[in-house]
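As described in the Methods, two query proteins were run sequentially through the folding procedure within a single session, without resetting any intermediate state between them. The first query and its resulting structure tokens are shown here.
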Amino acid sequence: MTLTAAQKQEDSMPTVALVGRVNVGKSTLFNVITGKYSAIVTDVAGTTRTSNRAIAYWRGQPIRFIDTGGMVAPPDDPFAEDVIHQVNLAIEQADVIVFVIDVRAPLDHDDKRMALKLQNSDKKVILTANKADTMQLTTEVHQQKWRALGFGDPQAVSATTGKGVGDLLDVIHEELDLTDAPMQELPEDTVKIALIGKPNVGKSSLFNELIGEDAVIVSEIAHTTRETFDTLVEWEGHHFLFIDTAGIRKKGRVEKGIEQKGVTQSINQIKEADVILFVLDSSEPISSQDKHLAGLIEDSKKPIIIVANKWDLTQEGHEDFSFLRITDKSQKYNDAREHYLQYITRIFKFVRFAPIVYLSALTGKHVLRLFPMIEKIDHERKKWIDPVELEEAFEKIKRKHLPTKGKGVRHPQIFSIKQIAISPPVFELKLKAKTDLHETYLRYLQRQIRRVFGFEGVPMVFYIKK
């Protein structure tokens, strides 16, 4: 038989097989990844009789996925022998195998038999714990019984909600080693962007949605520009480099060392970036990990856009949102943004100057709003204020509210103000000797300068010179 060009291309694609015992949710996971609903999904064990195949794109790269039936079929299944043959064929064709288990079920003999078979296959195996629908179930992937299978801690996913699927695809992408193109120079107008957020807030899904939009062009040098997973995209003639976005999958876990590695990864991304996208899960309360990352961003003095992801859950009323202190349930849809803004303003100082984009990476709703917002913030961080205009505005600000003293007894006097740097904007205040400004006056000064000159999303720094 002669292969067509399309068949040759598909045969040369990296291939991933989903295997596991019956009823662990392989077909549901396959459907979520590929976006195709051709596989039969029921609660009846052994429903998937043959291998379903589909091509999915992740980080601009095509990957062929194979869904298989349960390796250990029910004893009365007349198709058991055929199912086993199909599974063996899929394992043979695969470059990477996703071994799916049910985190809610005990480890049984069938799981162990499958693990032994995969260990003997000499293939790369990613152990994946499906049905981790709650936070408690997600933490159970670290139990010793799963490590006994010989593939380390599983990747926690929930195929029914999509939680953790983006992180799993990042692991697959890394294991397939799809990043061997030569390095090239960046366009001069390139804005470097880092997606920062705790695990499972949807960073990977958001990134994939950004580069998957019809209006976005993924460059031929995507994934290879400077670091292994940097990705260059073009939108309306403007260039955006997403920094090491594959690194965001590396979760901070309970184990010492792995958690520190996740923090180090975030610090490095922040240092490299021109603009930070701080991704939050708007369906959950702010956690200590969110606060820690926020502190890193605030200390960096980098421009920031807050991304309230999973906003579709808010509008559809899937959560109770008691943490927003909404007493009237009728307010959920109309006033959710206002309540969420008030909620995070109480926690994060930079919310007062950072724009917020409410979106859903899962549905793609409002994702494209990020590109013009990034463009705007990039312009704001490079802004130089005309010295004359700055002095004139400053005189009006002082007349409205005289400087208040900090330490000491002498009343402060500010002789002049000038901008001495950009990105972030730094302002030098020349102050009367042996006097000091109260920090509340510096906050007032910052608010007034923003009111006149903008600087949306950009932190400001004041340098006192006496």
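Immediately afterward, the second query was submitted; its sequence and tokens are:
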Amino acid sequence: MKHQIGDIIGDRFRITEKLGEGNVTTTFAAIDEAQDQTVAIKSLSFSDVKDWKTLELFEREAKTLKQLDHPQIPNYVDYLQIDTPNGDRELCIVQELAEGKSLHQLKCEGWQPSEAEVKSIAEEVLNVLSYIHNLKPPIIHRDIKPHNIIRQKNGKIVLVDFDAIQDRLLGGTTIVGTYGYMAPEQYQGRAQPTSDLYGLGATVLYLLTGKDTAQFFQEKSKIDVSSEISLSPTFANWLEGMLEPAIKNRFNNAQDALEAMQASYEVARPFNSDITLKRTKNSLDIVIPPTGITLLNLMKIGMVILISFVSFPFVVKAILIAIDGAVILALLILFFPGLFFLNGIHFVAQRINWHFRKIILSFNHNNFILQEEWRILGFKYTKYQEGKTSNLKYIKNTEEYYFNYNNNIIKNNSLMLNNGMQVFYLATCRSYLERKWLKEQINDFISNIN
């Protein structure tokens, strides 16, 4: 039955606009004259149905919508069965109208969302998915895509079009979804709650690039997000987790995916590194364990100690001569042996500082705390420094040069954290990749705050 603008459906709903048309359904905007509210009516005529599976899905959608109660899912209003004069029957699902534009429509109009905007949208959709996946039995949407996510004028995100939903207990092997947004298992008719996560990941990819997953070169069907888009490392890792082709490699559920954005999670570190980094939306915690003394460094320290002890008798003799009153002669004797001795002490102390120091660095929106800890031969010494996170200017790789005991120049690679008044040195004697990774993570966190 073809409705026109102004028609009354069910003696209550006056059609005001045709919103869209699918393969067998038509959606209208209407006024609920009983409640004085705007609604959306999805209509299905028996005469347009080619198989009973279509009717089953439509009735399942109505049944499911009736039990849903979430602020980001349009409210169920009514379900109508109308017998027409020509002997046809029409089914209508009536819902609250989600006013706004779909994410697909916004992209087509030139919208270029920032990473922060996309994260916010993903978080809101994950909240909805967590709700429907935790129902008894769980509900799988099966068609998460930009067309089915509405952004309202106030920025609120609404999930619509539940015509592809699957009741997990009823199961089913029907292939339902949209090419470019369907998880691999959906092509086999085996949708899981994590299939919706893949659809959301594909939606996020589209928002950032304007392309769906089918338009990306995929080796073994896995998309290398980092090589395709310039994103913060943590968000790129999260998106790759959403787009994992194998179910077992994806996030376990929507709540896990949500917590990966909002709560603590460990960021992948360079291979074989023992540095740990945990980052949340509001905090960053880094632990840099002591490297310990390698055999080569131990040999260097032994050599320095040996040379220092060779010069030690000259230092003692100079002190004795100074006691006898020959101060100038004592200074002349002490100069070179004393220089060797002091440089040796400095070298050993420096190596102990570098290799036995544990650093615990914690940032939040307001403050940062740097804790340095040394444990040597059962003795422990701890030093605390703190400051305002907003005062941090940058962190960069730096090379400092020192003269060792025989006046050769040696180089110390570190990370230098500057807060405008103090300089803090981190990750000394760590590899270039480790320093580069830490620098990127800290700078990204600081820039998001500032």
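The longest strand covers residues 367-376. We note this only descriptively and draw no conclusion about the first query from it.
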